[in-house]
Amino acid sequence: VSQEKFIGRWVRPDGGYVIHVREVRPDGSVDAAYFNPKEIHVSEAKVSVWKGFNQLFIKLEGTGYPGSTYTLYYYAEKDQLAGFYYQAAVKETFEVLFRRK
Prior knowledge:
The protein is mainly beta. Helices cover 0% and strands 61% of the residues. The protein has strands spanning 8-12, 17-24, 30-35, 39-40, 42-50, 53-60, 69-75, 80-87, 92-100. It has a nine-stranded antiparallel beta sheet, with no helix packed on it. Strand 2 and strand 3 (30-35) form a beta hairpin. The relative contact order is 0.21.
């Protein structure tokens, strides 16, 4: 699967959160934005391959989100991102799903 598959707008159905991946660069770095519903600063975003899965990692640094992360895997058969959201403020990890908008 090409890492270009990550490009687009992704919506989390359980809350309307949006990840907008604008570009995936050859070095794996990603130009991405996160909205809830206003934009939250993305301090780091990258794609990689982990155990054969295409992975998108996003780290947030906005107010109320410092150090919170998404670790998401691309599932081609459903054209979805699924994985984990770590909410740093409460030190909890949640399973999450994003669908292409």
